[in-house]
Design goal:
The chain has 228 residues and is an alpha+beta fold. It has two domains: 181 residues, Gcn5-related N-acetyltransferase (GNAT) (Aminopeptidase); 42 residues, no CATH class. The chain is built from eight helices and seven strands; from the N terminus they run βαααβββαβαββααα. The protein has a seven-stranded mixed sheet with strand order 1-2-3-4-5-7-6, sandwiched between helices. The longest helix has 16 residues. The radius of gyration is 24 Å and the shape is elongated. It starts with 5 loop residues before the first strand and ends with a helix.
Length: 228
């Protein structure tokens, strides 16, 4: 999954180590992402990922350097997911890396995995994420009072969600307003159409063998034989 600034790739052993460092206790990324701040090792992240309990992606810039991590996990009924992640180094915040990383993750879930609902929770002190989410089509579903504790006081949390039809409405708006916007398809539509034409041509040719044709030939052969 590749954007203009970053790309998402499956993590390596080195990526798991970086993730453990970024999301450990008292780290800047952990504070802004409002994680639990528990001590989680690289091996813990690897096991969670390989089990499918927490599907992770390394966020790499266009030089190939790992700058962050994003993840999703099943949440609620089939088709529901929750998101998480962050850009690790505070020096790289506000460069659009995190925004694009989560856009790519949303594309993957809705456009490739058939998601119906995606949600995430953010602390009300994270102004960068709040600026992003309030402009990205998400719906504010509720506030959790005094949910996080930071700097000597409790802070509320906000739960945001995006449904499948809302995601595609955002894409439709982008297509109308940005002539250069391209749908996040893994295979271009023209290639899909060409593939369908290949099969249609095969089915209608005299050389094309299909299960329906074989059945018709079999039945025709059986009915042409005299009853014994």
């Amino acid at each position: 999954m590749k954007g203009r600034f970053v790309q998402l790739e499956r993590p390596t052993a080195e990526d798991y180590a970086l993730t453990a460092q970024w999301f450990g206790p008292n780290s800047a990324a952990s504070t802004m992402a409002a994680t639990e701040g528990a001590v989680v090792s690289a091996e813990d992240f690897r096991k969670l990922d390989e089990s499918g309990e927490l599907r992770q992606f390394a966020v790499r810039d266009m030089t190939g350097a790992t700058v962050g991590a994003v993840h999703y996990k099943a949440h609620g009924p089939v088709g529901g997911y929750s998101l998480g992640g962050a850009i690790g180094d505070p020096q790289l915040w506000s460069r659009g890396y995190g925004t694009e990383a989560f856009d790519l993750l949303l594309d993957h879930l809705f456009h490739a995995r058939g998601a119906h609902r995606v949600q995430f929770t953010t602390a009300l002190y994270n102004k960068n994420v709040l600026r992003l989410v309030t402009k990205a089509g998400f719906v504010l579903e509720g506030l959790l009072r005094e949910y996080y504790y930071l700097d000597g006081q409790h802070h509320d949390a906000a739960i945001w969600s995006l449904l499948r039809h809302e995601y595609y409405a955002v894409l439709a708006d982008l297509r109308r307003t940005d002539p250069g916007f391209v749908m996040p398809d893994s295979i271009p539509e023209k290639d899909k159409a060409e593939a369908r034409r290949i099969v249609a041509g095969y089915m209608t040719s005299t050389e094309g063998e299909t299960s329906a044709r074989l059945l018709l030939e079999r039945v025709a052969g059986e009915t042409s034989q005299p009853a014994g």
